[in-house]
């Protein structure tokens, strides 16, 4: 087996591996629209109107909503505020 045949064989195997890797479907990306509901709390992730990802935590006992967002610059969660659920949906 000469050098040219070896190179063609290696390139053929590499091309086959890359073709198979492109045909395998990737897992679904994470989406910030998940809901977790329990008896006392409801937790929702969503996009904030100001941009970025937000975490809304509703305390079902007191009727208060706490809003948090992710600060990319400082790499931490920042509280945005706590409001009554009835005030959050008023126009």
Describe this structure in words.
By secondary structure, this protein is α+β, with helices and mostly antiparallel strands. The protein has 2 helices and 5 strands.
Quick summary of this structure?
With 91 residues, this protein is α+β, with helices and mostly antiparallel strands. The chain has helices at 3-23, 85-88; strands spanning 35-37, 41-47, 53-59, 64-71, 76-84. The N and C termini lie far apart (79 Å).
Strand and helix layout:
Blueprint: H1 3-23, E1 35-37, E2 41-47, E3 53-59, E4 64-71, E5 76-84, H2 85-88
Antiparallel strand pairs: 1-2, 2-3, 3-4, 4-5
Task: Quickly give the structural class.
Answer: alpha+beta
Please summarize the sheet with the most strands: 5 strands, antiparallel
Encode the helix/strand succession as letters: HEEEEEH
Strand content: 35-45%
Helix share, percent: 25-40%
The radius of gyration is 25 Å
Extended strand count = 5
Oligomer: single chain
Distance between the termini: 79 Å
What is the averaged pLDDT score? 83
Question: Spans with pLDDT under 50 lasting ≥5 residues?
Answer: none
- Count the helices. How many? 2
- Give the overall shape: elongated
List keywords for this structure.
91 residues, alpha+beta, five-stranded antiparallel β-sheet, 2 helices
């Amino acid at each position: 087996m000469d050098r040219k045949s070896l190179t063609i064989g290696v390139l053929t195997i590499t091309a086959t591996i890359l073709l198979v890797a492109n045909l395998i479907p990737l897992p679904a990306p994470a989406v910030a629209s998940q809901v977790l509901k329990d008896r006392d709390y409801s937790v929702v992730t969503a996009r904030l109107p100001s941009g970025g990802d937000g975490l809304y935590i509703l305390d079902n006992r007191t009727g208060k909503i706490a809003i948090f967002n992710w600060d990319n610059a400082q790499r931490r969660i920042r509280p945005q505020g706590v409001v009554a659920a009835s005030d959050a949906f008023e126009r």
